[in-house]
DNA sequence: CCTTTAATTCGGCGGATGCCGAACTATCGC
DNA sequence: GCGATAGTTCGGCATCCGCCGAATTAAAGG
């Protein structure tokens, strides 16, 4: 049967603990070296090398040589989407009561990158705030930036001009597998993530997809998005006074 | 790491030839019995039973008992989406020149069900026709039914009233892995598929996801959608004279 | 040019799992 | 009830493949 044979190969590649750990790490959006990935997956360099060769050959990841280093990365958004969809099914698979928690888990649940955009409680909270304030419309089947939202995001420093296609095309919903709620993906999501890192609101945590919220980020998200991240009720953004009226512009910093 | 462990399990389940064949068969949208699936996957009943137990336990498929028969089906659209996304990556994985062809392949390429909607050349051609005639807007990131499209589809006999949410929410694009072009999924896609089967335009092929185009279907698609399926240039629908003016109503038949 | 570090290749070990047939259970139709 | 058919469970076989360490290649840098 057409397609089936290769589908098996792809799924089998993901269906191994070491390789899945590698792919999950690369889902952080950063390119990593073989040694780093071997360390993260707790396997020897030689074993990692074998896995990486297979993943490259199957075109799930790509390699960039830089001197004696070889950087690996997810090859395309399509592969990232596939991995997300597997994560999502897997997350729902298991009754929540069985999900063990750890410090590391908590960090990931709080904030992380998902290929090129934000996920976790922070990602969901930002999405909720944008929806509450009428900046975007978000549903499982599609998302859209409103006129007010375009102004607001421009003021935030997100560059939405480059991909000029329809407003809807680049604001995609992504179901968060830890929160099981929607967050913003697509070009809009990528820009929000980029800008948060640029502003120093969030910083990458070494050897992890997790992101750490800085004091600047805490106040920035409060002032600009109406989010109080000290409050355990992260999911209840407050409407901004300025919502829809055009937003204050945040200067570039750092 | 949260999520990773189970993602491995899910992917590993798909990453076996017999199980993938079973899942691919169930992607046809019909519930099938264990014996049928054993036959399709060319394994013994006992082996199939083992595989099916695992798939049920992992909640990728569900079971309905009917007397001494047990019918298996894909458990949710989310699982179907995951399988599609794997198929898509797998299809792109392999350089086209290496794809072997067979009679069976050709039937699948021509027309098939994809969980609950149409795929293959016919699926893509219908989507193209709807776009050409201004009935829907379709892009990789989202789809939408126009006012004219709503009238047209109502005339065709598709029931779009039940799910009353936004027009966009139930017209989802789905990238066809054999054609590598978009076709219509979501509620709209499911209704088009249902109606084509109801009208006897397409019929299911035994033991396959493939669909056979009937003479009625050929004339129906020509008259109502402007498609000439005898023409190898399937992908060039003609604009309908009636497009946008409200469409003729097709009576229920069969 | 020699040391150091990154990465690959190879041989061999060991665990995991897909597979079957035979025995067993469940349900139908007579 | 009894035979027939659908499906499950179990034991055992065979194969696959992930893993490691040691040897090898590649590149950087003194």
What order do the helices and strands come in, and which of them pair?
2 copies of one chain form a homodimer.
Chain A: H1 4-14, H2 17-26, E1 32-33, H3 34-41, H4 45-57, E2 61-66, E3 69-74, H5 77-93, H6 103-110, E4 112-114, E5 117-119, H7 120-132, E6 136-139, E7 142-145, H8 147-156, E8 172-175, E9 182-185, H9 186-198, E10 202-204, E11 211-213, H10 215-225
Antiparallel strand pairs in A: 1-3, 2-3, 4-5, 6-7, 8-9, 10-11
Helix pairs in contact in A: 2-3, 3-4
Chain A binds a DNA duplex (30 and 30 nucleotides) through residues 16-18, 33-35, 43-53, 67-70.
**Tally of helical segments of chain A:** 10
Total beta-strand segments of chain A: 11
Query: What's the average pLDDT of chain A?
Result: 83
Give the SSE string of chain A: HHEHHEEHHEEHEEHEEHEEH
- Please summarize the sheet with the most strands of chain A: 3 strands, antiparallel
* Estimated share of beta-strand residues of chain A: 15-25%
**Largest sheet strand order of chain A:** 1-3-2
- Runs of chain A with pLDDT <50, length 5+? 241-248
Principal-axis shape of chain A equals globular
The N- and C-terminal alpha carbons of chain A lie at a distance of 55 Å
Structural class computed from helices and strand pairing of chain A: alpha+beta
Radius of gyration of chain A: 19 Å
Oligomer: homodimer
Helix fraction of chain A, binned, reads: 40-55%
Largest interface: A-B, 57 and 58 residues
Total separate domains of chain A: 2
């Amino acid at each position: 049967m057409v397609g089936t044979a290769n589908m098996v190969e792809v799924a089998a590649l993901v269906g191994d603990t070491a390789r899945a750990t590698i792919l999950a790490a690369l889902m952080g959006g950063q390119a990593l070296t073989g040694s780093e990935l071997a360390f993260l997956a707790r396997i020897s360099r030689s074993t990692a090398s074998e896995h990486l060769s297979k993943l490259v050959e199957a075109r799930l990841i790509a390699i960039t040589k830089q001197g004696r280093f070889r950087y690996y990365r997810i090859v395309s958004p399509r592969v990232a989407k596939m991995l997300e969809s597997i994560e999502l099914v897997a997350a729902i698979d298991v009754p929540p009561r069985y999900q063990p928690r750890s410090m590391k888990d908590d960090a990931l649940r709080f904030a992380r990158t998902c290929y090129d955009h934000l996920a976790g409680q922070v990602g969901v909270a930002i999405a909720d705030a944008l929806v509450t304030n009428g900046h975007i419309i978000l549903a499982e089947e599609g998302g859209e930036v409103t006129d007010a939202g375009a102004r607001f995001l421009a003021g935030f420093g997100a560059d939405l001009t480059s991909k000029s296609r329809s407003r809807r095309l680049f604001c995609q919903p992504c179901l968060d597998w830890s929160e099981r709620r929607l967050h913003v993906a697509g070009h809009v999501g990528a820009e929000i993530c980029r800008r948060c890192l640029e502003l120093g609101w969030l910083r990458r945590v070494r050897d992890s997809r997790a992101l750490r919220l800085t004091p600047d980020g805490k106040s920035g998200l409060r002032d600009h998005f109406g989010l109080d991240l000290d409050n355990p009720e992260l999911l209840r953004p407050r409407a901004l006074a300025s919502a829809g009226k055009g937003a204050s512009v945040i200067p570039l910093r750092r």
